[in-house]
User: Fold this.
Amino acid sequence: MLEALQVFLFDYTFRTVALGAAALGAVAGALGCFAVLRRQSLLGDAIAHAALPGIGLAFLLTGSRATPVLVLGAALAGWIGTLAVMGIVRGARLPEDTALGIVLSVFFGFGLVILTFVQRLPLASQAGLETFLWGQAATLMAADVQMIIIVGAGALALLALFWKEFKVLTFDGAFAASLGVPVRRVEFLLTSLLVVAIVLGLQTVGVVLMSALVVAPAAAARQWVDSLGLMVLLAAGLGALAGVVGVGFSSAGSGIPTGPVIVLVASAIVGISLLAAPGRGLLAEVVRQRRVGRRIRADAVLADLYALAMQHEDRRYGHPVATLRAMRRGEVGIERSLETLGEQGWARELRPGSWGLTPEGEKRARTRFLDPDEEPS
Amino acid sequence: MGAPEPAASLPDGGPAIEVNDLTVAYREQPVLWDIDLEVRPGALTAIVGPNGAGKTTLIQSILGLVRPAAGRVRILDRTIQEARSEVAYVPQRGTVDWDFPTSVLDVVLMGTYREVGWFRRPGRPERIRAVRALEKVGMEAYQDRQIRQLSGGQQQRVFLARALVQEARIYLMDEPFQGVDARTETAIVEVLRELRDRGDTVVAVHHALQTVPEYFDDVVILNVRRIASGPVSEVFTEDNLRVAYGGRVPFLQAVSDAPVADLPES
Amino acid sequence: MSGLDFEIQLLAVVVSVACALPGVFLVLRRMALLSDAISHSILLGIVLAFFWVQDLNSPILILAAAATGLLMVAMVEALHATRRVKEDAAIALVFPALFSLAVLLISRYAGNVHLDVDAVLLGEIAFAPFRRLEVGGHDLGPRSLWMMGGILALNLLFLMAFYKELKVSTFDAGLAAAMGFSPVLIQYAFMGLVSVTAVGAFDAVGSILVVALMIAPPASARLLTDRLPLMIGLSALLAAVSAVSGFWIARGLDASIAGSMATAAGLVFLLSMLLAPDRGVVASLLRRRRQKVSFARLMLTIHLLNHEHSPAAAEENRLGHLSAHLRWSPDFARQVADRAERDGFLDRGEGDRLHLTPLGREAARHFMTR
Assistant:
């Protein structure tokens, strides 16, 4: 553990790689928010897989292994994949999921064919294209990191510049069009930014899993905040965190591909967010449900107490728990409900095992059960 | 987007919206056939018709969101592109994701995006106007609420506020009363009347036929073609409705003893 | 053609057809991407079962894989049911996590055995003939051929036994429930079948290309026919064609067989999309071109009818007016008017004035009221 920390702080190579992973995680997280909100989570998967033949062809045509060349090829192929999805949906009138499935798998298969050509080349430089399948952060050079940061910053700058338009388009496209927003062009820009975010991460995370880094931080961030601005900021932060932690884990063990590690870290963040986020979190929901359930059960007992009191000349008379339980047909937890009523000051334990209404409890029962329109709370 | 154009003075008696020979088709399937229509300025106009009559398509064609196969639309004697800043749109409430991470005030502010222009954000003046618009629909207390927490009626009022903040002269609304509570319905009607009394024009797709005479001045009866249009007292007749709804009128009432309007045929 | 080539092609055809059969219903039920999610998730089951039994040929692996496929489907549904994420995001979150876990386990603990990360993506169809099934010293052929043949038979049996149920629950879940069989049960049984098929195919072509075999041939068949039995038959046929042509493409280019099969399936789809007799892009364009004039002719007669008795008729019903109001080019307007005249819908009066004939009036009325 200490060793890992030492590496983390002082190793130059590691710092470079971690910086790159953080940058691409941030870009993917921020732009992923729009993909998730526009229900395009799986389009990201298709774009990432469709990029593979682009990488291979870019290498075959230029003979260059320089990252910008390969990334450009990936981006073009990713875009063609997106257009193919739209073309199949419009031209063949098939459902979108079918279109996504075809593009994803056929482009990827074609990419594998291209890769077999690449592998036959007698060049030493061929090595490394396979890292685009699973991602290998260790292959990130300082120049690659620079490119990620510059291109990523450019993408985020465009996001900030066209924030209003992206937001209104994502929330209400018809309204955006009625405002005169050039919807097609803005959509084109937004999808292009998604393509950029995905191809930037291919070398580190790999085509197979990159889409998870686009979806997961956004889905996690949504649980914690209720504003688009905060969601994008938080998703960028969580994406960066997943990138850095993932790179840390994968460089601790030799030969472990980075992509799966980053995805597992991101998935863990999603899991924690779904469970623990205040408000939207499932734990908070359970607590809320319990409280509501307890109130409903307590109200039922209050109603019983009220009914009993009405039949008795002494309204403050104490009724045994056994009677109340019988009225609830032996339901368990009567004591708990009585305690709740006691805490609220609506009922009192007059003798051990005997409970009666307080004046406040009687008032509450009257307003709640007899005249529901004038509920005090 | 850009600065709002100065309000053009309207030649006396000119229509607020003029639709000529409008035909809209999806894949050679007609949705609207050769519609001719004039909408009176300063009036509340309802568009009624059975499901699939093309009511939403008509609204969207007026807004320029749908490409017509033929015909044209003029707004205050200008094209929709020239008249954008005069027109506000209230889409159907159900078309958006109400789990979207945004607040009530934020949604209303979207109505100012056009005049704010590219690359800029709404500022204090826009916020003040947005709050005013929320006050008009009785929602100012909810401005910081997440939109998911609103009831259907409250959502509709937020949409209305978003249109009000545009300070337009023509309001196009798609089923503003769909699935709202009685209180919201009253509030919306009040706002619509206020707009009319100010001289603004409101066109709303409307489903509940029984409230047409009470809420609206004019009515357009539509079923792929225009069956009739004009003042409610003249054209909102049993015969016209029967033509539009094919004899199965969900609601029929002797609306008035007004003469049956001229039908294009039959 | 050597015996080796023959065996590989036979296996390719069996795998493709076995995938295409359940694929038909995946496409029709709009669950195409669930096949992607399943084919990824089953890897975790395979890996975990392998750690347990230490034998790559154990049938336990298939069972475990199918179980993970079902688990994944259940997880997606549970996640979606929390209403914290939308369905597409739920799919996109669950399967990468399971897949990542599996890949990590392989690269960390099983790197030296027969299961490696490249095989996960590429499959090993080229090596399949080298693993023979021998019983009592007799060579019965490649082991995977027997397995895939079994899975194909299972698919056929399932399809025959539950054809009616599958069909009804695909097109009308409510009706299925009313008829007394649970759509949920059918759904899970079907997902189990998809999982088992994916496990078998995974061995041959890897996790991602399974999707191409399951989705592309049925999608192509969908464009060629509207009838379910024919669609099933065509899917199987196109799958076999893709498999064989994929094999020969791979041979010719000396490239990955699995990748070529997916590419061939994609090409078959592209051809169907362009050339399908009714739904194809070319047919649609031709039809639309033809319909454009006939639709415009109808538009013209209706326009004339609407303005026939109006005071502005003299003005409105002129050829020159059409280009202004209907926004037609003068050429197009003349072409349409000529066509309408030839069809007997209208007459031309003096000064380009257009008159409806009784036939035209009848036609306009008929189409306007549908």
